[in-house]
Structure formats: C-alpha cells, structure tokens
Amino acid sequence: MRVPLLIIFFLTFIFFETHAQTPAQTIPAFTFYKLDKTPFTNKNLAVGKDILFIFFDVTCDHCQHTISTLSKRISECQKIAIYLISMEDKAAINNFFALYGKNLPGQKNVTILQDTQNQFITQFNPRKYPSVFLYSAQKKLRLYDDDDQYLEKFFKLISPSKK
Fold this sequence. Notes:
By secondary structure, the protein is α/β, with parallel strands linked by helices. It is built from five helices and seven strands; from the N terminus they run H-E-E-E-H-E-H-E-H-E-E-H. It has helices at 2-18, 61-72, 90-100, 119-124, 151-158; strands spanning 31-34, 39-41, 50-55, 80-86, 110-114, 131-135, 141-145.
C-alpha cells in the first residue's frame, strides 16, 4: 500500500511544480493593515505611479537581502509607491526593519503592511519569499521575480535616470 501512496505523492508534486502559480496580472482587491491596525485596501493605493509590492518573511535570508538592498537604494525609488507586506506581527516587523531596512520606515513613498488575513498568497499568487511585483500606474504587472539575485531588473525599470 505504501508504494502507490508514494507514487501518488510524487506525481502530485510534479504536477504542481510544472503548473506553478501565475502571479496576479493586475492588482487584485485586498485588505491589509498598517502597523497601527488601520485597514489599507487596494483603493488606498497611490494613483498615477508605478507600484512595487514586496512580500517578505522576517526569517528569510533572501528577504533580508532584498529589503537591505532596497533600503540602500531607496533614493532611486522616489517616483514609485512601495508597499512592503508581511504576515508577521508588528514587533517582528519593526525588528526586521531596524536590522535590515533602517532607511525605509518613514519614507513618504513606503508603506509597511501586515497581511493578517493571509490574502496576499491567495490574491497575488507569489511563488516564494521574497516576491517582488512591479505594477504600472494602470495596475498591470510589469515585472515579477522571486529571486533576490535579480533585483537589478527592477531598479533598471524604476530608477529616474532610466525613465
């Protein structure tokens, strides 16, 4: 009986690997929360700007690298709206930014959000942490990646000197 169950498991794994989630092509409806517990929905997004979403986990070393890089290069991102989303609690998020993203909290174009209802995964379809989504001002996906080694692709699209 074990052999058929193992075969079913592996076939299921292969099926899901080859049919990976497709990232949301347009910004879906959602409700996240600011760290002060204020609801934040897709209706609150910046208008007329490209929008960058970064879905991260505070224990993920690739997320730490992504946020650290963004923090160091935030001056290149002034023309876009940035939304940083985690499912962690406020204390963990604050500690994460104190360690890896000191330049991000308080930036006019940066909003840190909590996904307390686990909507990001079901609405945006990220494949793993960190997931970086760049949407146009018309809310259409321009670029998605989940490998922190390819962040340069995003900076080429969002840097003022590149536009």
